[in-house]
């Protein structure tokens, strides 16, 4: 493909991403994969270049752009190589019209910029939300140790005891250590959230929003396969991805439980008052993960944010019923908005004044309200809020 044809292809893909963001359709990654499947003539260099152009343009536009072409023109303002490719050539984009407007830049739609600023995320902190995420691995201590493990690339040792960092795009899935379950892909911040749970061998631990079990597997390793570890979620598809992952990781103690939304406690009845720890990795707006899903900021609405906030409060209340006297609830969101993080914990403690707020012991981050905050700019992780709340004895 010519460079101009790549730009035109990226513009068409951006049009699909914009339409999907408006209608809550397929995520950008899926749209890209489907486009590549339908355009086999695009070789690996073309695919890499088109992907770069598409994500570069998504990152460059704050609010949702009107068109893919306007988004590409926005990217052209910061990359001088792009504008000359609007040359009207065969398969290339038409020449830039006199006075043709580029899409608006910025970090996010204005309402989100304002909410983030009110939560102390502005300037460099806000800009870093759209940086490139590195690739982090967690060494699975059920099968290996960070000291002894031999990998094709040594990686950088991080603060979490089993964390290693590699360059974005490292093909770890090809490594024997990955296939054998010695390592898992997991953001350093997620590893620190698991560390904050302080799950120990012999304990009863519930991962209330386990999804496909990324954090459950880390908890299983910390528990050395001893005790009881329940992975619960309302999403059948996500939860069904956990058993093969657990098998690969040698995590034999995990039980899965599918919950009915709104009736979670019915299925969890047998655990009421029994858990030493409940991890609530709550559904959230994901403002801390824009490095990986930059188009997510075009999909969020005020109403959806309010729904997340309501669900988070309900899940905290459910978790508090599952914990034994003297046990702990670890509350985690990958969002930097206070209404989803520090504000949720303050509201919980106001509803339950006999519970104790307590900042978890993690080697990175800064205090925020009754918890700790990790940010891409300060900590090099995805953005997280993490709190550990203690039940009265
Ligand atoms: C942030 S994700 C969890 C990610 C997962 N812990 C991991 O580390 O990969 C939030 C999860 O909450 C689940 N969820 C949403 N509503 C829920 C509810 N009422 N009860 C339990 N889980 C719920 C979603 O299906 C989603 O998997």
UniProtKB/TrEMBL annotation:
Keywords: Methyltransferase, RNA-binding, S-adenosyl-L-methionine, Transferase
GO MF term set: RNA binding; RNA methyltransferase activity
Entry-linked SUPFAM superfamilies: S-adenosyl-L-methionine-dependent methyltransferases (SSF53335)
Annotated ranges, domain SAM-dependent MTase RsmB/NOP-type: 102-392
Record-listed E.C. numbers: 2.1.1.176
InterPro entries, per database record: MeTrfase_RsmB-F_NOP2_cat, MeTrfase_RsmB-F_NOP2_dom, RCMT, SAM-dependent_MTases_sf
Binding site for S-adenosyl-L-methionine: 233, 281
Active-site residues, Swiss-Prot/TrEMBL: 334
Cited Pfam families: Methyltr_RsmB-F
One Gene Ontology term from the biological process aspect of the record: RNA methylation
Family: Belongs to the class I-like SAM-binding methyltransferase superfamily. RsmB/NOP family.
UniProt-recorded name of the protein: Ribosomal RNA small subunit methyltransferase B
Organism of derivation: Paraurantiacibacter namhicola
Gene responsible for this protein: rsmB_2
